[in-house]
Amino acid sequence: MKLGGSALAGTALLGLAGCGGGGESGSEVTEFTFSFGPDSSGSLQRLVDRFNQKFQGKYKANYRVMAADTGQYFNQLKTEFQAGGGETDLIGGDVIWPIQFAANGWIEDLSDRFTVEERAKFLPAPVQSCTYDDKVYGVPWFTDAGMLYYREDLLERSGFSEPPKTWSELKEQTRKVVQDSGMEDGFVFQGARYEGGVVNGLEYIWTSGGDVIDPEDPEKVVIDEPGAVEGLAIERSMVESGVAPKAVSTYAEQECQAAFLNGRAVFCRNWPYMYALATGEGESRLEPGQVGVAPLPVAEDHGESFSGLGGWNFYLNAASSEEEKEAAYEFVEFATAPEQQKFRALNGSFLPTLQSLYDDQEILEKVPVIALGKEAIKNARPRPLSPYYSDMSLEMAEQFNASLKGAKSPEEAIRTLDRELQEIVDLGEIS
Ligand code: GLC
How far apart are alpha carbons 328 and 209 in whole angstroms? Predict the structure, then answer.
């Protein structure tokens, strides 16, 4: 728990500060607050309980449930940081956050704690996402890449032995399966005006040969190229052709998940976590044999499939006390250790960040999405690694969504973005 300025002075006078502020006065237990979004797999609370059990009498983690929408969660933290620290000591945070948080001095430099030797055990891309100015500000927890889920049984029934490799094949297969099986929705994906909509839009752009920022020069916006326009045009054509329901322009992960798990959709773009939900007991109406997963399709004349690199890392609040930081880092080590990452892989289909777990036979056999994820993350692209990313993302969310809804043409949306993104970069103001 953190209290800023005069509030802290006030509690100190009352003798309540110290030892994490959460325990009773004089208690030896260091309590700390760990924030993360809601966890539909149920495995996170079990992880927290295991930690609290293991460190009973010494440390206690309190799970603070944040907004499921990464943008809302980010804004909440940002408001708290700006007010002097906030409630949270340990942040389970998105891969797109650390550069901006680090540039503002809000999160702790972990370069000494998370040593070069330790870092080498992790996948390079998530470590890269935590690196800013040659320092490392986070420890990768689980990684994410966009995937295409499909109804294996229905595809087969309609005579398709393989999932689609291109966006046009996806349309063709959807039409046929919808006709044969009377499905309500064909293809669902995240099209709402938020971060997920940004990743989906980028995936259409990347699989059509476009990009946003020059990989060689982070100051140069390169979105105004035919590939980007084509990408948004393909995305929009999903709705225009009736392959995707109109409502996808309001869909986030949860809505897509509901459509697929309830058996309403043939195809669904989502993250690996959905595999455990789709094939598990709980809310899914599907049997494991009905669920297939494949890499995202590509545009006709572009060979390679790309997906957005997602994922979540651990960051420490720079304003927490040394005791809280120590306790919180103990949790980081605990949660990223092989045993716990394996537990989350088996119980929530979260892609591990430790390289060694991709050779773990039990994981590969029981959670096929992870074997596929191993390939997908090789082709996963990060969103722009920039201290201005959150501002860029808001613009992309707006323009991608306007194009998807048909309020603007893809050309117009891309032209607007070209101008606005370059303005953000040129202004160089970290919000
Ligand atoms: C997933 C990804 C995260 C991304 C978010 C968008 O949680 O891991 O990186 O920003 O989806 O909704």
Answer: 42
> Closest residue (by CA) to atom 2 of ligand 1?
310
**Helix residue spans in 302-356 (DSSP H):** 322-336, 338-348
Q: Which residues form ligand 1's pocket by a CB distance below 6 Å? A: 70, 94-96, 144, 195-196, 199, 253, 271, 310-312
Distance CA 386, CA 401 (A): 22
Which residue lies with its CA nearest to atom 3 of ligand 1?
Answer: 310
Looking at domain 30-144+310-381, its CATH architecture is 3-Layer(aba) Sandwich (3.40)
Q: How far does Cα 12 stand from its chain's mean position?
A: 38
pTM above 0.90, yes or no: yes
Which CATH code, of 2.30.30.280, 3.40.190.10, 1.10.287.370, 3.90.1150.10, is assigned to 145-308+384-427? 3.40.190.10
- The first and second tokens of residue 2, run together, are 């953190």
Q: How far is the CA of 141 from the centre of ligand 1 (A)?
A: 13
Give me ligand 1 centre to Cα 83, in Å.
26
Ligand 1, pocket-test mutation among 123, 144, 274, most atoms within 8 A of CB: 144
Question: How far is it, in rounded angstroms, from Cα 276 to Cα 345?
Answer: 9
Ligand 1 centre to CA of 425 (Å) is 23
- Domain ranges in the chain with CATH number 3.40.190.10: 30-144+310-381, 145-308+384-427
Give, for all 431 residues of the chain, the pLDDT tens digit.
444 333 333 333 333 434 444 445 556 899 999 999 999 999 999 999 999 999 999 999 999 999 999 999 999 999 999 999 888 999 999 999 999 999 999 999 999 999 999 999 999 999 999 999 999 999 999 999 999 999 999 999 999 999 999 999 999 999 999 999 999 999 999 999 999 999 999 999 999 999 999 988 889 999 999 999 999 999 999 999 999 999 999 999 999 999 999 999 999 999 999 999 999 888 889 999 999 999 999 998 777 889 999 999 999 999 999 999 999 999 999 999 999 999 999 999 999 999 999 999 999 999 999 999 988 898 899 999 888 999 999 999 999 999 999 999 999 999 999 999 999 999 988 88
Angle at 430 between CA 426 and CA 431, to 5 degrees: 125
Residue pointed to by tokens 């605990």 = 334
Ligand 1: residue of 40, 66, 271, 315 to mutate (most ligand atoms within 8 A of CB) is 271
* Residue bearing the CA closest to ligand 1, atom 6: 196
Structure-token match 């060689």, residue found = 216
- What is the position in ligand 1's atom list of the atom closest to the CA of 37? 7
